[in-house]
Design a protein that fits this description.
The protein is of the alpha+beta class and about 525 residues long. The protein has 18 helices and 23 strands.
Length: about 525
């Protein structure tokens, strides 16, 4: 493994984005423009309700396929590729032998089987006179989410002990991809090792005390290196499978949301970024290890030197809009498909007919349970305030507003963690294509909102790490300055801000009124 930067006069870099439903390869030039892009779908497997798995080799094969296709479609000379880096779905893990073979399929981040492990984890902490709050202070992770891979690893150790013992190495999707493209051994990115749950999050080092409490072997976990580090080079075999050439530097990448943040230029305190995709994720940076007093926001590393990243999640963001599309917009969807029109543009136009606040119609966006700050799996989606005066326009707009209220909940928790006041929010994901939604977010948060030119900000973040690692730019800040471009800016409208303040209070009052009795009863009736 190399710890020095190389220099390059190459013209292009590659960012590989291994997402949940598929993998994609993007080729960027030095200005951050997309020169080519190719995609390959992941064949997810659902062995039982609540269980989600994926064959690790199929992720590798999909990446090879997408890289080769992108290279073919670009017409770029592979000798002009300066470096390759990766971004990936976090919270999924690989069990592996030293010879590279896989012990079992990947247990994906959205798999729910580990729910049973949380009482055990609390009991293990209690044996050492520790609480979940103590765990949070050390690790920076709330002890409450089934997405965390640590709880899934404990589940494997309990229910599949022979597989746990058989595994020589536990690593993330990063090491899977980096090794497949030529990295030496299995190397994870240092910024994401907090997901293992046995880390001192203030130093990004394994904490033997936590490993002892949770009865796992530190020696099984992969080595790690900082984002931007060169850890190998493409081989002859990789070149044959991908259309590349041997000798291209393989550079440590970072998790999807850290890469999305830098891909939107979120590089310092006072600047926040928000991805409104299937779920919502709000990110801020700090020069000291932040801790949320409510222990509801997770803290990780960031590729930005000397900083930590604090994150807050929602379970349903743009997915609420998709649900609405499928529920009440079937005719428009069919017409849009025939006319090559985006049905979401139609929905946004209809929503624009409704007044701010939707005549008091409030949407609670907890169709998949509530994440930060409530962490309430029994919470359910709802519309509150219906009257005969409400039309389709109000229904659509209220969904957009309800998602924004949920984001404000996350924002409030981030500010309580001691971060400096956010001055600007960078917005990405599917919602960023809607000027109306951008304005709603600006008004609800009472904060300017900016969008960026490159919609593939996650892959761009990986591309910028490749550009930094291969010497196209001296450091990540230089890469951000040259590769991230602001597209639009939305200023909060004072009269809208005042209305949304009132409705946001109603939004929170609604949760408080429903959480004790109604939500649990509905959850019990539904059976989950």
């Amino acid at each position: 493994m190399e710890d020095h930067k190389i220099m390059t006069d190459k013209k292009y870099v590659i960012g590989i984005d291994a997402g949940t439903t598929g993998v994609r390869t993007l080729i960027f030039n030095a200005a951050g423009d997309i020169c080519a892009m190719a995609y390959h779908e992941n064949p997810l497997v659902f062995p039982e309700p609540g269980k989600v798995e994926l064959d690790a080799q199929k992720i590798i094969d999909g990446c090879y396929f997408s890289t080769k296709k992108a290279m073919e479609e670009s017409g770029i000379d592979p000798n002009e590729i300066g470096g390759i880096s990766f971004t990936f779905m976090r919270s999924s893990f690989v069990l592996r032998k030293n010879d590279g073979s896989f012990v079992r399929d990947i247990i994906m981040w959205q798999d729910l089987r580990c729910q049973e492990m949380f009482p055990w984890m609390e009991e293990q902490l209690k044996k050492k006179d520790m609480t979940p709050e103590d765990f949070y202070k050390i690790s920076g992770f709330p002890l409450c989410s089934t997405t965390w891979p640590s709880a899934k690893i404990y589940w494997v150790k309990k229910h599949e002990p022979q597989l746990y013992e058989e595994a020589d190495v536990i690593h993330s999707i990063h090491a899977l991809l980096a090794n497949a493209y030529g990295a030496e051994g299995f190397i994870d990115d240092r910024e994401d090792i907090g997901w293992w749950g046995i880390i001192d999050g203030t130093k990004f080092e394994f904490e033997p005390k936590l490993a002892d409490i949770f009865e796992v072997d530190i020696d099984k976990y992969a080595q790690n290196a900082p984002a931007g580090t060169v850890i190998g080079y493409t081989t002859e075999i990789v070149a044959e499978k991908t259309g590349l050439v041997p000798g291209i530097p393989i550079i440590v990448g970072c998790g999807d949301h850290q890469c999305a943040a830098i891909g939107m230029g979120n590089n310092h305190e006072g600047l926040a970024s928000l991805v409104l995709g299937t779920c919502g994720l709000l990110v801020g940076h700090s020069h000291v290890p932040p801790r949320d007093p409510n222990a509801s926001c997770q803290v990780l590393g960031t590729p930005m030197d000397g900083q930590w990243e604090i994150e807050a999640h929602s379970n349903a963001a743009a997915s609420s809009f998709r649900w609405l599309r499928d529920a009440i917009m079937q005719t428009e969807f069919a017409v849009a498909q025939q006319g090559n029109v985006d049905v979401y543009d139609i929905m946004t136009a209809i929503a624009g007919e409704a007044e701010v606040g939707c005549k008091g119609l409030v949407y609670l966006p907890w169709n998949a349970g509530a994440n930060c700050p409530h962490y309430d799996p029994t919470a359910r989606g709802a519309f509150i305030g219906f009257t005969f005066a409400h039309r389709r326009a109000e229904i659509i707009r209220s969904v957009m507003e309800g998602v924004a209220y949920d984001i404000k909940d996350m924002y409030v928790n981030l500010t309580q963690a001691g971060l400096p006041k956010f001055e600007v929010l960078r917005l990405g994901g599917g919602a960023a294509r809607s000027s109306l939604w951008c304005q709603i977010v600006a008004d609800v948060l009472n904060m300017p909102v900016e969008t960026v030119e490159c919609e593939e900000s996650t892959a761009l973040g990986a591309g910028m790490l490749a550009a930094t690692g291969c010497g196209m730019y001296d450091n990540l800040q230089d890469a951000i300055d040259n590769m991230v471009k602001i597209k639009d800016r939305f200023e909060p409208i004072p009269e809208n801000v005042a209305k949304y303040e009132e409705l946001y209070k109603i939004f929170n009052d609604a949760y408080d009124a429903l959480k004790v009795k109604v939500f649990p009863e509905i959850s019990t009736y539904q059976g989950y």
